[in-house]
Design a protein that fits this description.
about 25% strand, 6-stranded mixed β-sheet, about 30% helix, Rossmann fold, alpha/beta
Length: about 230
């Protein structure tokens, strides 16, 4: 039986209170297995990004049970939650959030620097990872010297560099052409899908569905069905 990196039971998230509350997650039952890449798909506004944010500890659930890497992150003190995310989670969101004064390699190295690495080895590791992503020649460029797709790959490098146990991605291929998107997803599978790690991806990009081990379909704040894929790329 597959061990679970994420377990949601009757998970609910409301914005606002009382009669004016907007019920975005309406009782989600969902899990993410170690050693797998799980996709979360569905129409815009169905609650996918909210669910991703709750799983990542960026939003607290209104009700229900949530275990992430065996931790009840909703009950962690704010400083404990920050340390937990820094150590265990990697993030790729639609907004790249690169620091404009830093080079691509320095941006990618930020999680290592935050963990106490010295600058030189952290940046050297980032350069190697950027090379794997096809950005070796742009490793020392600033964000304003990079295209949107190149900035997206820097964001990938930053998310992967500290080898997180759970990687969460919101529309990771939205700024990439088909070939680059395919290459990035191959790298994700190679780097992040291991027996002690898991990947959760929110996407509208049907071109990359074949990379998923499981696809969870969401609508109106609920998981409506789970599709197992036997031959993930």
């Amino acid at each position: 039986m597959q061990s679970k990196a994420v377990v949601c039971k009757n998970l609910r998230k409301d914005f606002g209170k009382g009669e004016d509350a907007v019920k975005v997650l309406r009782g989600v039952d969902f899990q993410v297995n170690y050693g797998e890449m799980t996709f979360l798909v569905g129409p815009s506004g169905c609650g996918k990004t909210t669910l991703l944010s709750v799983v990542a500890g960026l939003l607290n659930p209104t009700a229900g049970d949530l275990a992430v890497l065996d931790a009840d992150i909703a009950k962690l003190h704010s400083s404990e939650a920050v340390l937990f995310r820094r150590k265990n989670l990697g993030f790729v969101f639609q907004q790249f959030n690169l620091l404009p004064a830093l080079t691509a390699a320095e941006n990618a190295a930020v999680p290592l620097l935050a963990a106490g690495w010295s600058r030189k080895p952290a940046v050297e590791k980032a350069v190697v990872l950027l090379r794997d992503l096809g950005l070796g020649e742009r490793a020392h460029a600033k964000p304003n010297q990079l295209s949107g797709g190149q900035q997206q790959r820097v964001a990938f490098a930053r998310a992967l560099i500290h080898e997180p146990r759970l990687l969460v991605c919101d529309e990771p291929t939205s700024a990439l052409d088909a070939e680059t998107g395919h290459h990035v997803m191959e790298l994700l599978r190679k780097s992040a899908v291991r027996a002690d790690r898991a990947v959760l991806v929110v996407t509208h990009d049907s071109r990359i569905y074949n990379f998923a081990d499981r696809i969870a379909y969401m609508n109106d704040g609920l998981i409506t069905r789970i599709e197992e894929q036997q031959n993930a790329a």
